[in-house]
Specification:
This protein has about 280 residues and is an alpha+beta fold. It has eight helices and 15 strands. Bound molecules: pyridoxal-5'-phosphate. Pyridoxal-5'-phosphate binds near residues 151, 180, 200 and 238.
């Protein structure tokens, strides 16, 4: 069951126009929202970020927060899997002719549920690998846009290299991952790139910072350099579907001799407590 433009339909019954600007240009924005035991995690924060993305590209929000919540609740009553993620996408809609500039159109709204199976702490304890690449994306990475060509190229590179993530750097500063935010711990302080146009302001990033403060780990929103990443005591990535994951190898070099850090373990535990609160 999916939601498309006011209707709840079987997925194979849902279709859109070939003139939809989402199809032609990737002219749209999206959100991914985790649902734990039927409860939507940090809904208001996700809806606020959705509003920011819509405002940035000049699409009027087609629904009030209450209407969004009603759509999500209806979908959730049809799917009883314990943990899921809501995928919602809004495109500018379909025009009669393909042209880059746009008129006022009726937005296309699509929502679906996907299974969510966060890794257990036992699985995470093995650590994960990443590679680094120059960040060649545009300078509005704060917009959660569906046009994700660069991120797709990086993610495919991660797959080909059999690593969990590609960590990106711009002028030697670590921005974020292809599909995550990036943190390092150095000398008992947590560092991450500040919010702004060069990164997506991750909802999980905020939760990780909140968890670090609760765990008495000082935080500094300053981008680590590439050298600092490679010589970090701990490296983590975060996203709504991956939560907070330890990276123990970057560009084939071990981080902290390839061992999981204690700060990650504490922050992971606190994060879990927020989910279950
Ligand atoms: N940065 C990028 C480029 C992403 O694609 C994502 C998530 O998909 C994130 C950061 C993490 O955002 P969130 O924690 O809100 O899922």
């Amino acid at each position: 069951m999916v939601y498309l433009n006011g209707e709840f339909l079987a997925k194979n019954q849902a279709s859109i126009s070939v003139m939809d600007r989402g199809f032609l240009f990737g002219d749209g924005v999206y959100e991914v929202i985790p649902v734990y035991k039927g409860s939507i995690f940090r809904l208001q924060e996700h809806l606020q970020r959705l509003q920011n993305s819509l405002d940035a590209i000049g699409i009027k929000n087609p629904h009030t927060n209450q209407q969004w919540q009603d759509i999500f609740s209806q979908l959730l009553t049809h799917d009883l899997a314990p943990n899921q993620s809501l995928y919602l996408q809004i495109t500018r809609g379909a025009d009669t002719q393909r042209k880059h500039s746009f008129e006022s159109l009726t937005a296309t709204v699509f929502v679906e549920l996907n299974p969510l199976t966060p890794k257990s702490k036992h699985e995470l304890n093995q650590g994960f690998s990443a590679i680094t690449q120059a960040d060649f994306r545009w300078q509005r990475c704060d917009i959660k846009a569906t046009s994700l060509l660069a991120n797709i190229m990086y993610s495919q590179q991660a797959k080909q290299n059999q690593v969990e993530e590609v960590i990106l750097h711009r002028d030697q500063s670590i921005t974020e991952g292809a599909t995550s935010n990036v943190f390092i711990v150095k000398n008992n302080t947590l560092f991450t790139h500040p919010t702004g146009p060069n990164i997506l302001s991750g909802i999980t990033r905020d939760l990780v910072l909140e968890s670090a403060i609760a765990c008495q780990l000082p935080i500094q929103e300053t981008a680590p350099t590439l050298d600092e990443l490679l010589s970090a005591d701990e490296v983590w990535i975060s996203s709504s579907t991956r939560e907070v994951m330890p990276i123990t190898q970057v560009d084939s070099q071990p981080i902290n001799q390839g061992k999981i850090g204690t700060h990650w373990s504490n922050v992971y535990d606190y994060y879990q407590s927020l989910k279950n609160a």
